[in-house]
Design brief:
single chain; 116 residues; alpha+beta; 5-stranded antiparallel sheet; globular; binds adenosine monophosphate
Length: 116
Protein backbone atom coordinates (compact mmCIF):
# COMPACT_ATOMS: atom_id res chain seq x y z
CA UNK A 1 0.00 0.00 0.00
CA UNK A 2 1.24 3.51 -0.71
CA UNK A 3 1.66 6.18 1.95
CA UNK A 4 -1.49 6.64 3.99
CA UNK A 5 -2.79 10.09 4.80
CA UNK A 6 -5.20 11.38 7.36
CA UNK A 7 -8.53 12.17 5.72
CA UNK A 8 -11.96 13.32 6.78
CA UNK A 9 -13.06 9.66 6.57
CA UNK A 10 -10.48 8.56 9.19
CA UNK A 11 -11.92 11.24 11.47
CA UNK A 12 -15.46 9.97 10.84
CA UNK A 13 -14.31 6.42 11.63
CA UNK A 14 -12.80 7.65 14.91
CA UNK A 15 -15.94 9.71 15.62
CA UNK A 16 -13.95 12.94 15.63
CA UNK A 17 -16.22 14.28 12.90
CA UNK A 18 -19.97 13.62 12.96
CA UNK A 19 -21.64 11.55 10.26
CA UNK A 20 -25.00 9.94 9.70
CA UNK A 21 -23.91 6.32 10.13
CA UNK A 22 -26.17 3.78 8.41
CA UNK A 23 -24.30 0.55 9.22
CA UNK A 24 -20.96 -0.35 10.76
CA UNK A 25 -18.96 -3.44 11.59
CA UNK A 26 -15.34 -4.25 12.42
CA UNK A 27 -14.17 -3.82 8.83
CA UNK A 28 -16.19 -0.97 7.39
CA UNK A 29 -18.56 1.90 8.03
CA UNK A 30 -21.40 3.24 5.87
CA UNK A 31 -22.64 6.82 6.21
CA UNK A 32 -24.63 9.24 4.11
CA UNK A 33 -22.78 11.52 1.71
CA UNK A 34 -23.02 15.14 2.82
CA UNK A 35 -23.35 16.34 -0.79
CA UNK A 36 -25.89 13.83 -2.12
CA UNK A 37 -26.09 13.26 -5.88
CA UNK A 38 -29.27 11.19 -5.61
CA UNK A 39 -32.14 10.91 -3.11
CA UNK A 40 -30.11 8.15 -1.44
CA UNK A 41 -26.32 8.54 -1.48
CA UNK A 42 -24.30 6.45 0.94
CA UNK A 43 -20.56 5.82 1.18
CA UNK A 44 -19.12 2.47 2.26
CA UNK A 45 -15.61 2.97 3.65
CA UNK A 46 -13.10 0.39 4.89
CA UNK A 47 -11.64 1.14 8.33
CA UNK A 48 -8.22 0.33 6.91
CA UNK A 49 -7.08 3.58 5.25
CA UNK A 50 -6.36 2.26 1.75
CA UNK A 51 -6.02 5.53 -0.22
CA UNK A 52 -7.54 4.29 -3.46
CA UNK A 53 -8.44 1.12 -5.34
CA UNK A 54 -5.06 1.20 -7.12
CA UNK A 55 -3.37 0.88 -3.72
CA UNK A 56 -5.24 -2.28 -2.72
CA UNK A 57 -2.99 -5.32 -2.45
CA UNK A 58 -3.75 -9.04 -2.76
CA UNK A 59 -3.91 -9.22 1.06
CA UNK A 60 -6.79 -6.73 0.93
CA UNK A 61 -8.98 -9.14 -1.06
CA UNK A 62 -11.11 -10.03 1.96
CA UNK A 63 -11.69 -6.34 2.73
CA UNK A 64 -12.68 -5.61 -0.87
CA UNK A 65 -15.12 -8.52 -0.88
CA UNK A 66 -16.49 -7.43 2.47
CA UNK A 67 -17.15 -3.92 1.12
CA UNK A 68 -19.28 -5.24 -1.74
CA UNK A 69 -21.27 -7.46 0.60
CA UNK A 70 -21.76 -4.45 2.87
CA UNK A 71 -23.05 -2.45 -0.13
CA UNK A 72 -25.71 -5.10 -0.63
CA UNK A 73 -26.58 -5.07 3.07
CA UNK A 74 -26.81 -1.27 3.19
CA UNK A 75 -28.99 -1.13 0.06
CA UNK A 76 -31.40 -3.62 1.59
CA UNK A 77 -31.31 -1.80 4.93
CA UNK A 78 -32.37 1.51 3.37
CA UNK A 79 -34.95 -0.08 1.05
CA UNK A 80 -33.27 0.35 -2.34
CA UNK A 81 -35.23 -2.62 -3.69
CA UNK A 82 -35.65 -1.25 -7.23
CA UNK A 83 -31.91 -1.05 -7.85
CA UNK A 84 -29.04 1.33 -7.29
CA UNK A 85 -25.68 2.31 -8.73
CA UNK A 86 -22.31 1.42 -7.21
CA UNK A 87 -19.34 3.68 -8.01
CA UNK A 88 -15.66 3.76 -7.09
CA UNK A 89 -13.81 6.87 -8.21
CA UNK A 90 -10.09 6.10 -8.51
CA UNK A 91 -7.52 8.87 -8.71
CA UNK A 92 -7.82 12.40 -10.04
CA UNK A 93 -9.15 11.61 -13.51
CA UNK A 94 -11.53 9.16 -11.91
CA UNK A 95 -12.98 12.05 -9.94
CA UNK A 96 -11.70 10.92 -6.53
CA UNK A 97 -11.56 13.78 -4.03
CA UNK A 98 -11.04 11.96 -0.71
CA UNK A 99 -7.93 9.77 -0.56
CA UNK A 100 -9.47 6.94 1.43
CA UNK A 101 -11.04 4.17 -0.63
CA UNK A 102 -14.83 4.31 -0.65
CA UNK A 103 -17.77 2.94 -2.58
CA UNK A 104 -20.66 5.22 -3.48
CA UNK A 105 -24.19 3.78 -3.38
CA UNK A 106 -26.58 5.99 -5.37
CA UNK A 107 -30.28 5.30 -5.58
CA UNK A 108 -33.82 6.50 -5.19
CA UNK A 109 -34.09 7.73 -8.79
CA UNK A 110 -33.54 6.38 -12.31
CA UNK A 111 -29.81 6.38 -13.09
CA UNK A 112 -28.60 7.36 -16.57
CA UNK A 113 -25.83 5.96 -18.73
CA UNK A 114 -23.21 7.09 -19.68
CA UNK A 115 -22.31 8.89 -16.45
CA UNK A 116 -20.69 12.33 -16.69
P1 LIG B 1 -15.01 10.98 -4.22
O1 LIG B 1 -15.20 12.26 -5.00
O2 LIG B 1 -15.33 9.72 -4.97
O3 LIG B 1 -13.65 10.95 -3.56
O4 LIG B 1 -16.11 11.02 -3.08
C1 LIG B 1 -15.93 11.69 -1.88
C2 LIG B 1 -17.30 11.92 -1.34
O5 LIG B 1 -17.19 12.22 0.04
C3 LIG B 1 -18.05 13.09 -1.99
O6 LIG B 1 -19.25 12.61 -2.57
C4 LIG B 1 -18.30 14.04 -0.82
O7 LIG B 1 -19.55 14.67 -0.91
C5 LIG B 1 -18.20 13.10 0.37
N1 LIG B 1 -17.84 13.72 1.62
C6 LIG B 1 -16.79 14.54 1.86
N2 LIG B 1 -16.75 14.89 3.16
C7 LIG B 1 -17.80 14.27 3.76
C8 LIG B 1 -18.30 14.23 5.10
N3 LIG B 1 -17.70 14.92 6.09
N4 LIG B 1 -19.40 13.51 5.35
C9 LIG B 1 -20.01 12.82 4.35
N5 LIG B 1 -19.58 12.80 3.08
C10 LIG B 1 -18.49 13.52 2.78
Amino acid sequence: MSETTETIFSKIIRRQVPANVVLEDDVAIAFTDNSPQAPMHILVVPKKPIPKLDDAEPQDAAILGHLLLMVKKVAKHVGLNKGYRVVINNGSEGGQTVDHLHIHILGGRQMKWPPG
